[in-house]
Amino acid sequence: RAIKTNQDLLPETPWINIFYDDFWGTLLTHSGSHKSYRPFCTLSFRLNYALGGLDPWGYHLVNVVLHCAATALFSSLSSLLLGSGCWSLLAGLLFAAHPIHTEAVAGIVGRADVGATLFFLLALRCYIRHCSLRTSGAHGRSWTWFLGTLVCASCSMLWKEQGVTVLAVAGMYDVFVFHRLKLQQVPALFQK
Q1: First CA to last CA across the chain, in angstroms?
Q2: Which positions ≥6 away from 84 have C-beta within 8 Å?
Q3: Which one, 68, 117, 126, 172, has the greatest CB density within 10 A?
Q4: Measured in whole angstroms, how far is the alpha carbon of residue 101 from the centre of its chain?
Q5: By its UniProt entry, which InterPro entries does this protein fall under (predicted)?
Q6: In whole angstroms, what is the distance from residue 130 CA to residue 112 CA?
Q7: What would the mean pLDDT of 111-131 be, rounded to a whole number?
């Protein structure tokens, strides 16, 4: 239904409607709306429709390309956290072949998950760079990466609502990985 009967994919429908309708093409204010606000995913479907109509080959190709990019980003993040040995390779392979991810790639409407994941990982990568520049004294450049974090987090949310969780993950990275705060130190932190 998100593709075959979605009026937002048709060329005669104004593209701006994507930002007023839910994922299924129903007006957000309508009582029958699913309320799933995913305009970037719908926009990608519209581009697919403009290039190849309802031929599923193009839709699957875009899903695979997005998944490959997300897997490459996850592998690079794994090498930052696990080192560049066999563990980061194993983490990347598990990410690429995990059934949750392959199911999202195989199903065309799973593109919302794949696109949100890609921008989630980009936001996290930007935040990690922000943290490293913040302590090195390059405050001007660190704010650029922080802005990149916010832009990518917003894009992740516009692919799928759960993209907002990247902000919490970035905060957890800052506290527990970058500043190496131990879990036992958390109660003392709240007392201060």
Answers
A1: 53
A2: none
A3: 117
A4: 13
A5: TMTC_O-mannosyltransferase
A6: 27
A7: 95
Cβ pair 37, 159 in contact under 8 A: no
**Which tokens is 94 given?**
């598990």
Dist CA 39 CA 25 (whole Å) = 10
Q: Measuring CA to CA, which residue among 5, 70, 25, 15 is closest to residue 47?
A: 15
Helix (H, G, I), strand (E, B) or coil at 27: strand
Rg (CA), the chain: 19
Residue type for position 151? V
Query: CA 41, 47, 53: angle at the middle one, nearest 5?
Result: 115
Cα–Cα distance measured from residue 98 to residue 90, given in angstroms and rounded to the nearest whole number:
12
- pLDDT bucket at 181, cuts 50 / 70 / 90: confident
